[in-house]
Write a structure and sequence with these properties.
By secondary structure, the protein is α+β, with helices and mostly antiparallel strands. It is built from eleven helices and 13 strands. It starts with a strand and ends with a helix. InterPro entries: Acyl_CoA_acyltransferase (IPR016181), BioF2-like_GNAT_dom (IPR038740).
Length: 335
């Protein structure tokens, strides 16, 4: 027997879950109710949410969507999200996941005209098929990538020996004359956060729009013991920083920045060397995920690229969607 429910706040969804999407029962950071609640509260507080649940026996599927209008929904995700997908509970097999997703899609087509989902990785094909079978016109477009490193049992020395010669030579040359010190923290303090913010403000990056979200995430992960907050310092001053989390054998590289005034000494590269070594030899991770974005430097550190997709679904029952759907389909064809 299938049961479907819908929630208009993340708090209501949290109450209905009764802990089933907490850290203890959900391995992925990006599938936890804490993640969705914090992301919405800090980054999308003015936008309503639409959260759908379908239950079949001991299995469930959840869709966490933003609802910028009554006719359009979009994934509850942004640049902090390495990937987005429905969240499945109870370990359903592939066939069950697809069936549950079809039910969710069939519910959405009753009222919604357009849905866009990004960033979607492994489940993009299944989502496309499930929504199409529920009556949606679906378009899939590749939009950037996600860089990964599978260690396959290697220690840091073996991994480092396989890096490009240019990178290894740069680290060796800069380390020989470096005056930087490296420290890696597993918790968050006000002083450390002040250092993080100062480095980011002096970096090449645009002002960080979600500092409150990042701080809450870092504090939460610090309490759980999964935070790895690294700094390169010169005479005590933080000049480069990186925010990682490490959990269940996987390291996630969330943010990095360095003060451009110290580019000549490559503090960011030296800090990366130390962070990778710590994750591999101290935390014994087997996968490192550099997140979204095709920055050229990522290819030097990583070995795999996973394509990320944007999925657009148009409800053909509404004539107003036909032209946008055709334009999107043409855009997908021409790349």
């Amino acid at each position: 027997m299938l049961v479907t429910r819908e929630y208009s706040t993340v708090a209501d969804a949290r109450m209905a879950l009764s802990g089933r999407m907490d850290r203890a029962s959900t391995s992925s950071l990006f599938d936890r109710i804490d993640w969705f609640e914090s992301l919405h509260g800090h980054c999308f507080a003015r936008q309503p949410v639409r959260i759908l649940q379908v239950i079949e026996g001991a299995t469930e599927a959840w869709l966490f969507l933003l609802s910028p209008s009554s006719e359009r929904q979009t994934a509850l995700a942004n640049w902090y999200s390495f990937s987005w997908s429905p969240v499945y509970l109870g370990d359903p097999d592939a066939q069950t996941r697809c069936r549950l997703t079809e039910v969710l899609a069939a519910n959405l087509i009753k009222t919604c005209r357009h849905i866009d989902l990004y960033p979607v990785a492994e489940c993009s094909g299944m989502l496309l098929d499930a929504f199409r079978r529920s009556g949606w016109f679906g378009v899939r477009r590749s939009m950037g990538g996600r860089h990964l490193l599978a260690l396959n049992g290697r220690d840091f020395a073996a991994y480092w020996a396989g890096r490009p010669g240019r990178l290894r030579n740069q680290v060796q040359r800069k380390a020989r004359t470096s005056r930087f010190t490296i420290d890696i923290h597993h918790d968050l303090t006000d002083a450390l956060w002040k250092d993080y913010v100062a480095v980011h403000a002096s970096s090449w990056k645009q002002p960080e729009p979600g500092l409150s979200f990042l701080r809450e995430m870092a504090a939460r992960e610090g309490e759980a013991g999964t935070l790895r907050l690294g700094f390169a310092r010169l005479n005590g001053q933080a000049v480069a920083t990186q925010l990682w989390t490490v959990e269940n054998g996987t390291a996630l590289i969330h943010k990095l920045a360095h003060d451009r005034a110290f580019d000549g000494g490559s503090p960011g590269t030296l800090l990366s060397h130390a962070m990778f070594a710590h994750a591999i030899d101290s935390d014994h991770v087997q996968l490192i995920d550099y997140g979204t974005g095709d920055n050229s430097y990522k290819a030097e550190w990583m070995e795999q690229r996973q394509t990320l997709y944007r999925l657009d679904f148009f409800n053909p029952r509404f004539a107003s969607t036909w032209i946008p759907a055709a334009r999107t389909a043409i855009s997908a064809l021409v790349g």
